[in-house]
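Readers of this paper often ask what the protein records in our data store actually look like. Nothing more is needed to write down the fold, since each code stands for a local backbone conformation. Below, we set out a record of this kind in full and without editing:
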Amino acid sequence: MLCQTIYREGDHRWLAFGQDPDRPDNIVDTNQYVVEAGGDAVLIDPGGIEIFPAMLGALSAKLPIDSIRHIMLSHQDPDIGSSLPLWREVCRDDVQIHISWLWTSFVSHFDGEATLTPVPDPGGEIRLSKTLSLEIVPAHFLHSPGNFHLFDPRAGILFSADVAASLVPRGVRGGLFVEDFSAHIPYMEPWHRRAMGSERARDAWLSRVARLDIRILAPQHGLLLRGDDVKRFYDWFGTLRIGEGIEAVRQE
């Protein structure tokens, strides 16, 4: 599994993990992130059970596992957190696991012995060091009805879960970041049309994140967006027709 530092200033850094060349084709590719500051770290969407060995090996090469004091699950999908019981075996006993209050009893099907910290609908924060708090940003119905993103105001990075996600074929990837936004749209569009179910939710999210100084959008799938491509994504997403599949429910 590949690992790249996408931000570093002093002891504050973001690590992005993914693009595992040994990943089976029937397993969707995912990005996992670690934010570290002051010697403590938060692991964001640690991944499914199938990628746990590769992720553990890659992460262990970069920082001590005992430094992980927080695990954040953006929502309930298995590719996000079905590895949770395995992470609890290797992490410190007092690791805090943050997830929407809506999904605590559902995620307990992955790990019935985990103590989960429920996040209320308005969001909250993860205090990572004496000088750095990460903002838990609501993103409900994009695509999960209980969904959160995580914003680092110092780094200007928003972990955006399935928003800005893309499904990019192995042979097309040339790096971690999008280099040609227009050429990248076909890898985002089918997913956003189908998985994003509410224009009201999209518009509320766009209004909120427009007030944040976001320099990198870091999704859970595919390539990251940076610089001017962040604004290009807002403009594209804001006019996209979403909620495909509704037609199959309607009666003529």
Notes: The CA atoms of residues 197 and 246 lie 9 Å apart.
